Amino acid sequence: MPRITSVESPGCPPLRAITTDILGLIKVVEARTRPAGVAKVVETWGEPDASRAILVASLADRAVDPVLAVARKNGVVELLNPLNGDALAAFKFSRTDQTVGAVENDPLVALHLFRKHAPDLTTLGTFLACTEKGKASVRSVAKENTASDSDVGPSSTWDVCNKGTLQFSSVDAGENYAMFGGNGMEVNLWDITSCSKMWSAKSPRANNVGIFTKPWFTAGTFLCKDDHRKIVAGTNNHQVRLYDTASQRRPVVSVDFRESPIKAVAGDPDGHTVYIGTGTGDLASFDMRTGKLLGCYVGKCSGSIRSIVRHPELPLIASCGLDSYLRIWDTNTRQPLSAVYLKQHLMTVVIDSHFSAEESEETKSKQPDSSMVAEAAVRREKKKKKNVFVEEDEEGTQMVDPDDCDAEAVRKEKKKKKKKTVTEDDEETQMVDPDEGDAETVRKVKKKKKNRRVAEDEEGTQMADLNDSDAEMYAPKRIKSESGERSKGTKKKSKKQQVA
Amino acid sequence: MAREDRKRRQPDGDEAADEGERRGRRDKRPKEEKPAPPLPSEIRNKEKRSEVYAKLKREKKAQKRRLGRERGQAAQRAAELGEEVPEKQVPRTIENTREPDETVCRPDDQELFAGNDADEFNAVLKQVVTPKVLITTCRFNSGRGPAFIKELMQVIPNAQYVNRGTYDLKKIVEYANNREFTSVMVVHTNRREPDALLIINLPEGPTAHFKLSKLVLRKDIKNHGNPTSHKPELVLNNFTTRLGHRVGRMIQSLFPQDPNFRGRRVVTFHNQRDYIFFRHHRYIFEEKEKKIVSKDKKSKGETKTEKQINCRLQECGPRFTLKLLTLQHGTFDTKSGEYEWVHKPDLDTSRRRFFL
């Protein structure tokens, strides 16, 4: 069998995954429906530089306005747009009570970007960061702060531990609780809003020979989406433990798995399955209700697994690690679907679940059916959103250097033209579809009107931008949020149509 | 079945007596007249069988030689006539039918160079730091182990032997780190025979674990030379994949990067089918006068002398073979270490798949 597993794989469903590596590169891997089942690198962001190695990354996986946060080795935290790789903000991470030079001794080990949208419009994102010595803090990045390289002050900060080194942290689905664990410290559960420790684990009793093992947790996650009380943690001496914080401090279930430390744990949306990866490249899934091994993922994986992500909807997981491969597995059959060689030691992988597969096909398909048209409309709106993003950025740059103004204006005009052509296309496709009922067409026309209104709004805002610089910070944002709502609405519609 | 097939292919001949008998047995084939010579494996008499087999082999060999000669003649003729010389046949080997591998490094890969600049060996290979190697053993070192270490110390300049005692390897790594060693080598012996080699790069790893086999010490090599204390030249062959590059660079970082070419000493690490062959040679360029008898008729019998430079090699041991078992991220830590590459049985899917 050849080493290139993509040949023998049954095919990978449309997917977009983003990996980060030790050279500070961010690589985007996409699998599309055409050609089917082959995942490949579509984009690489950043220059190779070892001092800017990415330690951790976190994606706020939203339909509207997603943000990717990466923490680099030199103490810089960056916020990026995961759709096009534009840097939204970058700032030096340091604590207020520390000097900047302390970053080397106390690197960031955990980062979580909150998925919930901040209520006020001035913030780009809020994240929980934790350093190796257990200094956790919640910070929010304001939009005014993007240009300045200064530090962002923490809104709240606390010490998770006073001894040992922290190795992981995980935030539950509701984003109210965070768990921490590491070498020489037990698993802790913290309330983020009040910054108070809720619960901490207790080591299991000494075994029958009387040997007591030092706590060393290497990975962990919350088991259920809607329940923050069940925690799964992997230890360095190859145990997977389930803690129930509501009942007791000692583990409820504890299972041994092979011989090497557990390096990655990921939960499944079904609420009882976890995926674990070890230091020798073994990947397995466990049912934590019983502690039974469901099965191993066998596929020539020979390097330590650093990160596992489960796709929120599709039954697949992505794993990456020191063997430089991003592997995508089917969770039902436990077969490898695809493997992409990414050349560097990979640190983290995140999956962008809002990736629409037919984006590439949009231009190719000549006679799309009704659902396709609806989806295309949704996508177009998304694209517009993107455009708004880009324009915003461009405006930002305009503020900085006015020399490039002309070129950008030309580009904008081009974009507008494109948009117009797109809407025309939409009309044409409608003309083509003869089967559709009148009601639907009416709805569509409405939608189109909406779209046009959005376009007009955009133009209006652009005009406003040229005149007034103060208004620009807020006006596009409003449109964005509105369009986001709209897109949700249209999505629902499209679903209905599909059902029909 | 094979016999029947053969008979069907060669039905002509004249052997009537046999035919009647056969017809009695099987009526389906009435027109078989001459039996084909039986396969050697079908002959029961061993002497006869070996005779027939030897004859077959001889014929095959002769035919092969004849074909080769014909090819050679055709090529020569083509060369004389100024035509295009037919392509020389290349035998198919396991190496040149190796399975395609996407991890093989390409010379135009900018990411590879950036990765190399960022790795742990860069300081040594860019000659910022001079390599300093600590050699130690497993806890019970006897038999050929000490002799092997003695020779290894002569191969690697700036190497230092440290008694293992009863220290943990982690303690020794710490000790070496404090004394600014750049690598630690551990020779492991089993049943008084060296069988494994561990190379730990300091201060941040990685750690490579090799199986060591086919060890021949210097005194067992015929006509061996004795190495000088010059810094050797290093030859690393066939490290093609990303993993191979990493291992190659790790080996490279054991040796100083500024060889004394006057010393005429070469250390070779040759990788073939994932086995790394170690050889240590001295070489010399010699000027030799060679007599050439000129072919012209006028100057018949006149001999010319021509100076020719040829190179001679002399092996000066030891000689051994390494095979990579694991490459671990970080310094030696079997319990909580992360592996960059582990050899697993499910990786061996084909004979034509190699990792280095």
TrEMBL record, chain A:
Membrane-spanning segments: none
Chain intervals for the UniProt region annotation (Disordered): 359-378, 391-500
InterPro entries found in the cross-reference section: Quinoprotein_ADH-like_sf, WD40/YVTN_repeat-like_dom_sf, WD40_repeat_CS, WD40_rpt, WDR74/Nsa1
Bias kind Basic residues: ranges: 489-500
Alphabetic keyword roster: Repeat, WD repeat
CDD domains: WDR74
Gene Ontology BP, a term: ribosomal large subunit biogenesis
Compositional bias of kind Acidic residues: 391-407, 424-439
UniProt-listed Gene3D superfamilies: YVTN repeat-like/Quinoprotein amine dehydrogenase
Protein name, UniProt field: Transducin/WD40 repeat-like superfamily protein
Lineage: Eukaryota, Viridiplantae, Streptophyta, Embryophyta, Tracheophyta
From TrEMBL, chain B:
Pfam families hit by this protein: Brix
PROSITE patterns per record: BRIX
Signal peptide (from-to): none
Biased composition, class Basic residues, residue ranges: 57-68
InterPro entries associated with the record: Brix, IMP4/RPF1
Compositionally biased residues, Basic and acidic residues: 1-12, 19-35, 43-56
GO molecular function: rRNA primary transcript binding
GO cellular component, one term: preribosome, large subunit precursor
Annotated SUPFAM superfamilies: Class II aaRS ABD-related (SSF52954)
Domain Brix as annotated: residue spans: 131-333
Region (Disordered): 1-90
Any one GO BP annotation for this protein: maturation of LSU-rRNA
PANTHER family to which the protein is assigned, alphabetical: RIBOSOME PRODUCTION FACTOR 1, U3 SMALL NUCLEOLAR RIBONUCLEOPROTEIN PROTEIN IMP4
Protein name from the UniProt record: Brix domain-containing protein
Provenance organism: Triticum aestivum
Lineage: Eukaryota, Viridiplantae, Streptophyta, Embryophyta, Tracheophyta
